[in-house]
Design goal:
It contains 5 helices and 5 strands. By secondary structure, it is α+β, with helices and mostly antiparallel strands. Strands 2-1-5-3-4 form a 5-stranded mixed sheet, with helices on both faces. Helix 2 crosses helix 5. It comes from Streptomyces zagrosensis.
């Protein structure tokens, strides 16, 4: 009877050391390559503001900012965020002073159960930055259409329809959308 030899199995590392810079502090972690930013924040760093809602990038409860851009942290691998600046809801306030959006959410009752609020806040900060940088949305009038479109690259005015479109990836089961839009409008330039 002939024997066959099995080729040697190549063992590749399944974990890496990374540095996550979260809310201004550097954290050196060893994470499995499959660990998401959300799981690293919650399970390794104890930052539980970002929530695991759908775990499929469809609800926005896990939204955080990476290098100033909003992302679904449940879909982003922690190894891909190595060295990046991450801002979570815990890092929005200035000590005891809430971020202006946090204050506006309180003033306009932009939350009910509060589960989605951390993702809503981080997403809203991303919306303000995107509009200020001139990034159009699907409802931004096109230049040359005579509809009052902003010149390319100039700030996009955040109307209620702009805010609704830009925040459409963040779901609120309680239905506080009108109050969330009012809060963002108050802070928008």
């Amino acid at each position: 009877m002939a024997t066959t030899s099995t080729p040697p199995v190549e063992h590749r590392p399944t974990a890496s050391q990374i540095t996550l810079r979260v809310n201004g502090a550097a954290h050196r972690l060893t994470v499995d390559h499959r660990t998401t930013v959300l799981d690293a924040l919650r399970e390794h760093l104890g930052l539980i503001g970002a929530k695991k809602g759908c775990d499929h990038g469809q609800c926005g409860a896990c939204t955080v900012l990476i290098d100033g851009h909003r992302i679904n942290s449940c879909l982003t691998l922690a190894v891909a965020a190595d060295g990046a600046q991450i801002t979570t809801v815990e890092g929005l306030s200035d000590g005891e002073q809430p971020h202006p959006l946090q204050r506006a959410f309180l003033d306009h009752d932009g939350f009910q159960c509060g589960y989605c609020t951390p993702g809503q806040l981080c997403s809203a900060i991303g919306v303000l930055a995107e509009a200020a940088d001139g990034h159009p949305s699907h409802v931004t009038p096109l230049p040359g259409t005579g509809s009052g479109a902003p010149p390319p690259g100039s700030p996009v005015p955040l109307t209620s329809s702009e805010i609704r479109e830009r925040m459409s990836g963040n779901l609120c089961r309680c239905g506080a959308y009108t109050n969330i839009v009012d809060a963002i409008e108050e802070v928008a330039p």
